[in-house]
Records
---
Amino acid sequence: RAKAGGRNGYCFFAAEMTVEARTRMTLELSLRHALAREEFVLHYQPRIDLGTMAIVGMEALIRWNHPELGQVSPMQFIPIAEETGLIEAIGQWVLLEACMQTRRLMDWSGRPLCISVNLSARQLKCRDIVDQVRDALDRSGLPAPLLELELTESALIEDIEHSARLLKELKGLGIRLAVDDFGTGYSGLAYLRRFPLDVLKLDRSFVLQQDENDHNFDFIKAFVDMAHALKLSVVAEGVETSDTLQFLRNADCDEAQGYFLAKPLSLSDFEAYLSRLPRIA
Ligand code: C2E
Ligand code: MG
Ligand code: MG
Ligand code: MG
């Protein structure tokens, strides 16, 4: 690509790289202080039961309010946090903050809420991850079955033996374990039987692929049935239309998240969302 445009093309390419490299350096430098400067907040995306259409919980999604750049996407800074090792401290903060805020939201709303927290590959290798999770539960008083950890397939299969041992230990705390972004590659269901999992989260791209072709309904239905036979519950991510929602309900999918149902919300917007829902008995 650099050569295609001749000399000018090459210059353009080089300039682009410099901007990218500079942005990356700025992010990396400011990421080191972001925790101490309290620039992170958690947003919460509601997760809906497709049988009852009631909220069952939410996923914690980190947001970084950079003093100069504004809001930086986790897609941009989580990889940097991983490479630099900063993810260990940031991840620990996310765990505790998510458990504390969920406990408060439950007390305030009188509803049980299941909180999902994303763990990245590097956090799985962190020696005291089990202690971090136990500590977050102890300090927040959140019942263990209401905490779910989301791990990606790629992180799990990096070191299968280690993952299997670690997940068993985490499971021993009484929490729930989910595979995130399922369908974006790798293993398939058989592979995942080696881990004590509770939930499969179908990636948006996987769901959309099925949605576009009517004849694929049988495929996703069979997939959901197979997951159920393995005692896994199935959550669809990224539901943006009522058609997709209907499709998933017909396929017996258990739960869903997506802009059509609710966007990720700030804590105060999430509270407002909860207070607008019909009261529970
Ligand atoms: P993820 O865990 O798969 O989270 C789902 C992403 O899809 C979120 O992006 C969410 O805002 C977005 N989303 C939700 N509904 C829809 C929809 O209907 N349509 C579309 N197009 N997108 C939807 P977000 O918040 O930008 O997070 C991106 C990724 O960053 C997450 O993917 C997760 O891998 C990572 N991440 C976010 N928060 C954390 C965290 O606290 N710790 C770690 N380690 N990773 C995190
Ligand atoms: Mg997730
Ligand atoms: Mg996901
Ligand atoms: Mg995803």
---
Amino acid sequence: MPNRTLTLGEFLIDRPEEFEYDNAELGQLLNAIRLAGKVVSHEIRKAGLVDITGTIGSTNVQGEEQKKLDVFANEAFINTLTNRDIVCGIVSEENDEMISISGSDNRNRNKYVVVMDPLDGSSNIDVNITVGTIFGIYRRVSPVGTPVTEEDFLQPGNLQVAAGFIAYGTSTMMVYTTGNGVNGFTLNPAIGTYYLSHPNIQVPTKGNIYSVNEGGYVHFPQGVKNYIKYVQQEEEDRPYTSRYVGSMVADVWRTILLGGIYFYPPSTGKPDGKLRLLYECNPFAFLLEQAGGVATDGTQRILDIKPTDIHQRMPFFGGSKEMVEKAMTFMK
Ligand code: P6P
């Protein structure tokens, strides 16, 4: 029998155990994300040719200038998720307030909420660097039949039923987990099909790459400065190599595949760092742990943190188990 690579659709059907909650709905929800990812990928692929990479003069809740593709991606995911009648609410980096979805019968009977950064790293679009969509999925905690509430989104990351990202890079890839390991799918744009390209991903327990924006060095806490000096010492398996793209999807995907540590620490100007807990830190923390890695805020497991605000920021240290645990000894 030839080694036939599974498509994402076949994979979802072949693995009913992936969806211990509600097979059909969560599978449909991941399919909706798959579809929206293809729509965004198509738009991005021609961005350099059409005047769509410029800005539209508005800014998002983060005060960051919204680029047309940010807005396009946000609308593509919101519309696709709304039309599938599975989601009762969405939190997006691009929207100040949560989005309430009452469903086609206006009776708020949908059971899932989605948190997302529709186009993370978008400042890199104009220079053709990998950007991505990051998402997390939770079961609502408010009663079915009532409008979604903020509490539905302020759940700790350990209650995510699924999380993942779509990387728009040299190829378009969808990587996700439902709590049963991590699998990666690569899009064949010629036929619009994702194929299983990275089954059962495991983060190497050790690597030799550290990834941080060292431009902030003077503003980092002393423990972080000491760790950066440690990785640069000529000792044992060090110095490590420095790699930093400035797009979380690119930096964390490399960390997952090759091993290493990616961190966005607190600093005097950003006491909680820059990354957002709901739709950057938690989805990647879920993926990292499911692939044998670790993700902390410098002292505690990211997935155990109870959010207090839908756009709150959180320091993030994630990657190979041995490297993150070593880094944590400097943060005491
Ligand atoms: P800095 C993109 O805006 C983002 O949220 C992440 O994708 C990325 O890792 C980080 O910010 C880059 O931030 O301060 O290093 O430019």
